[in-house]
User: What shape does this take?
Amino acid sequence: MSLTKKQKLILKLLLLQQVEEEQAIIKYVVSKNKNEVHEMYLAREAEGFFSVLIEKYLWRDETEFREFFRLSWDQFNYVLNLVEEDIKTNPSIKIRKPISAAEKLAVTLRYMATGESLRSLSFSFRISQSYITRIIQLVLKSLSTRLTPVLLKPPLKEDLVRIAHDFWNKWNFPNCVGAIDGKHIRIFSPKKSGRLYFNYKDFFSIVLLAIVDANCKFIFVDIGSYGKEGDSGIFNKSSISKTILTGEYLPSPEKLPDSNVSLPCVHIGDEAFRLDRHMMRPYSRIEARKDYQKTVFNYRLSRARRTTENSFGLLSQIFKVFYTPISLKTETVDNLVLTACCLHNLLRDRYLENTNNYYYNFDDNKPQPSENMMSLARAGGYTKFEGFFVRDEFKKFSNSPQGAVPWQNHQSNRLE
Assistant: This one.
């Protein structure tokens, strides 16, 4: 049976219409699948870490809670109250049950405590990786803003006098108002940054420059310098350098213990920092070999300066994120480091916690991250004449009867 031209045209139009309908259906299905939420994430409230592990078990056991978050119940709630208004999401027609501020804080603290990959956190908390990234950025920004005025506020002169007394009583170094050191913190190469963050150890980093007190608490921090910069240059351009070298915030010169000699208050550092009236660094190894008194001074300075190494060690042992290269934007890394320093001070103060359960102590047996937190290079730039004079006076005091310590008496006798 042959078809007329009219019938053939009608059949062709019907076939074309069918093909167009099928293509439209395919496009609709594909577009719907792209926006479809995986069933794993839909089960967040029933199967996620926060609802199953944290709310059902960890809230009942403070020891396990601290192991998981590094903070006690009271400390967690204190931090949450500070940032809740910044990070909470109100319910809406589109999002009827948003992720709570407590869960967002839990995700961020867990990331800092473990350095776990964002993909791993996504599986644990049943939140998409992209949204976890946004959560961490938001929470760290809020934490750094809210915690800094409370836990890292600039010290007053009476605070520095107390710090100087602590350094003498605990570390036998007088008139010291802080020990300074810096670390290169390893990061993944930021996009379109070239070699700005590529340091002398051949990895990408930002610099944390910090002053700590005799109890291993941070007093000042300067974060975010490029890893490629020379270490003396990092110090010279930092806000810490301007604070130290001007000496404006320092107490007036004080008499050394049991002595009539008055010397200015100083900071102590290693060979990476230049000698100045308010900055002490050790004598060179060649000088110390030739003069035993200089060896005694170097030991006393290094012993007091060890508080910086202890502080960085505590920071990395509690927040294991510093054991791995950090895969966040550089601005977020800056906020992470600042937040970690603030929480470090919170824990050192034992704020809102039972001291009987306090466990935040330095353990020499636990190695610090040797590849992700590197010390500054030992090159300190030019010095000033006043610095030589002040250092020599400290050297004389360290070897005098007034400045000697019991376990160095035999050394003093040998010098006589």
Notes: Residues 28-34, 356-364, 410-416 have pLDDT under 50 and may be disordered.
